[in-house]
Amino acid sequence: MVIQKDLDFGMKCIKYMLCVANLMFVIVGLLLISIGYTIKSIYSNFEQFMETYYYNPSSLAIIIGIFIFVIALFGCVGAVRESTCLVNTYAFFLTIVLVMEISVSIAAYAMRSNIESNIAYNMKFAMDHFNEEYNAFTWNSTQYNLQCCGIYRNTEWGAYPEYNLTKIVLADNTTLSVPPTCCQQEKCSPATVYTSGCLFRLSYVVSQCALLLAAGALCVSFIQVLGIVFASMLAKSIRKAKTERLVRREELRRNFYDQMMKSRGEKPEPVVELYTPKDSEA
């Protein structure tokens, strides 16, 4: 009886720990969705400069965040109902998500290797086609938000006299042609024009976003390992508890029949020892 109480107490502790872990997973799921959505929103401001695969890690992070919500609910139901099947399925899905999170982390980190060269190529292409509306929108948005001008320097716009650019007369009487978004104020002047190029600033933004996503996915994967451990412990405790209950039920039934047979003067049936799994076998 004491052993059964200890077993029930231990299983309750594991159930509570699993519920707390599921609450953490809900928060983590929200965090992943938030990070993924924020990064996608940042990238959308520079869409013409981005490679398509830059969006893959953030999109996958959003999908994983939603998936974690469903899994957390699944785990809570399995814990409350004390279902070995549900808890084991929960642990299996957690393992799949764990692999996905590690994949996101690796993909996001690996993406940082060629960021600068890819963005420089796309910037040059968009600058060559600045007269197209979407390229102009992306360049103007980039220069306004990052407070920069051109790819490497502001003088690069002078190679495109066919564009409708703002002309600034410098101190040495040379003319600098730039889009209006290259200036801090609506009226451009030598004192208000941005001198830094956009490539290094945008590369830094994209690189930091990728690093944030990689670190976030990796941290979540460590937390998820705890969920897998708790789920495995709970499934083991549930199996052992159910076996103990079956053994007790059979013993009570046998004692009841033995008492009836003794009251009738009949010889009780021989006692057969029922197998009870040990802790290491549960």
Automatic annotation (TrEMBL):
Keywords: Membrane, Transmembrane, Transmembrane helix. Residues 263-282 are annotated as: Disordered. The keyword Lipid metabolism does not apply. It is found in: Membrane. One of its GO terms (cellular component) is plasma membrane. The chain crosses the membrane at residues 16-39, 59-80, 92-111, 210-235. The keyword Transmembrane helix applies. It is a multi-pass membrane protein. InterPro entries: Tetraspanin/Peripherin (IPR018499), Tetraspanin_animals (IPR000301), Tetraspanin_CS (IPR018503), Tetraspanin_EC2_sf (IPR008952). PROSITE patterns: TM4_1. Coiled coil: none annotated. Belongs to the tetraspanin (TM4SF) family. This is Tetraspanin.
